[in-house]
Amino acid sequence: MNKFIYFLALIFISFFPLIAYASDIKIGLVTSNKQIRVGSDVKADLIDLSKKNNQATQKTISIVNKRETLYVVNKNGRISVFNKTKNLNLGIFTGPILLKPNIKNGLVFCQDRWYRGDLLIFTNADVNNLTIVNVVDLENYLLSVLPSEMPYKWNHESLKAQAVAARSYTLGYLGRRKEKGYDLESTVEDQVYTGVLAEKWSTTRAVKDTKGVILLNSEDTPLIALYHSSGGGYTDSIENLWDETPSPHIQPRPDYDDKSPHFKWTRTFKISDLSNALSSLNLGEIKNIIPLSVSVSRRVTMLEIVGSKGKTQIRGEQLRRILKLPSSKFNLEISKGIVNFAGRGYGHGLGLSQWGSKSLADNGFNFRQILAHYYTGAKLVKVED
């Protein structure tokens, strides 16, 4: 436990109330040019929210009974609604339209997944695709995000740290996808969100035990609390890896993720497969990959790729994403038509390391100390809904 002794010097982060925040967020579930199934487990209202003279009409289109299935599809930029259970065409609408359960804790479904909250349906001025958005309370959203992002059997303090990070990430990135008509994606592009079937008792408890607790940055706004699976011994700073403004709160920190299954990893590519994977760079057959710089945590920050048609420089993070490498913390060797990568860690390496968080929690540290370690100097506060 000697490696943890320095934690004794940490200052406990204090709690204080903050101004109220809007509790409902919009999560993009699906955008498609195909028919989409929607409905509710209780009686629900289907409401037309289209505007006339800049005022929403708020007109009820239909009462939807328990478990009735509606099919919605884009028809030349408008929303066509068909009640399959009653074999009834409900009409074509400019939209958006809202499916709202009559009971507070009622559930809605989209395709084969059930969600808390309401469903918002719109075309977003697209003549082909229809978008379905889950309008859901922030705390209810986290009930599904937490077990989707961290194993539910892990230490309760690590689950609480993850809950605070996910809540802060949500509020920090609120409106990130506004051009699409919602706040966040339901995939790894933001946070994985798969609905109520993902919920577990242990993670629900962690969300409730930290209700309203978030991290604030130096400007007293919600911190975009980035997190990843495994830091490979050390996390990194945001400006080293991304084209982002430096953050005093996302800095290189010692990690304790040596029990991660991805602490050490290897990947092997044939030159022909590597050239195909990098074909978008228009370099022809790849001849060499030369790391040009590394960060303090030994992640490759810039590298040069040489091909039969030329050469170019890209970020190590870009290569990681293209080749789907576990991390940008790697060494590589090219020999006899084979490229061998040997690296450490999993994910971008910024902010909280989940495996490191687990190790700290297993060794007796609480969620406040874990967050203080990975988000240098951030304030921990409790906001009012």
Radius of gyration: 24 Å
Number of domains: 3
- Number of E-state strands: 26
Task: Characterize the main sheet.
Answer: 7 strands, mixed
Low-confidence segments, ≥5 residues, pLDDT <50? 1-17
Helix content: 10-25%
Broad structural category: alpha+beta
Query: How much beta, percentage-wise?
Result: 25-35%
What would you call the shape? globular
| Sheet with most strands: strand arrangement | 7-4-11-14-15-2-16
Q: What gap, in angstroms, lies between the N and C termini? A: 40 Å
Helix segment count?
8
Q: Kindly report the average pLDDT value.
A: 92
Describe the structure.
With 385 residues, the protein is an alpha+beta fold. The protein folds into 3 domains: 167 residues, no CATH class; 95 residues, no CATH class; 79 residues, no CATH class. The protein is 19% helix and 34% strand. It contains 8 helices and 26 strands. Strands 7-4-11-14-15-2-16 form a 7-stranded mixed sheet. The radius of gyration is 24 Å and the shape is globular. The N terminus is likely disordered.
Descriptive key words:
single chain, 385 residues, alpha+beta, 3 domains, 7-stranded mixed sheet, 6-stranded antiparallel sheet, 8 helices, 26 strands, 19% helix, globular
Brief summary:
By secondary structure, this protein is α+β, with helices and mostly antiparallel strands. The chain has eight helices and 26 strands.
